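Sample pair:
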Amino acid sequence: MNDTPQKARVLIVEDHEIFREGLAQLINRQPDFMVCGECDDPKGIAAAIEKAEPDVLLLDLMLHGAGGIDLIKQLHTLFPKVRILVLSMHDETVFAPRALRAGALGYVMKQEASGQVLAALRAVVVGELHVSRKVGITLMQRAIKMPELSAADGVAKLSDRELHVFELIGAGIPTREIATRLGISIKTVETHRENIKHKLELQSGTELVTRAKEWVDGA
């Protein structure tokens, strides 16, 4: 009889090859985890999950410009038993709450030490939530309606789709390409732009572009 504990299976979804390889090496060195597959294309994630049958999906929030929040929602609906841990460079105070609402169980910044990534994996694999202390405080403040201290307060007013449009604007993507990437009309993108300007109290398109670039550069 084999008494060796069964390792939890992790599917890594990350479009930076060197970073993905480093994660795989880190995870495979652990006695309780194994990498069962890798993927770098949002269009191939569902097939990769069906093939690899992971316990945990370690997911980069933005893959080739694909909206990570919408992707989490889709994957959580298709594969409700697969636990999702987001690993991202994007502002955790803005994106972590959205990722959790979309169906993820955890959120870790890419600049965190490897021990934090492993701690997050071990929490998520048993069904526990994992966020940083900073995000935990932000969530508690919101729950009891205390004034928030995050510099990203204004951006937090945006819907998930508006936030994605805002980020693409900040990355210098023109309106027509934003429409193509998101599968929506140019008119819809322009409507999102106007809503963003209103919520962020911006007076012009130039102010919107400047604010978006500043936010992306500081994300």
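The chain has two domains: 8-140, 153-218.
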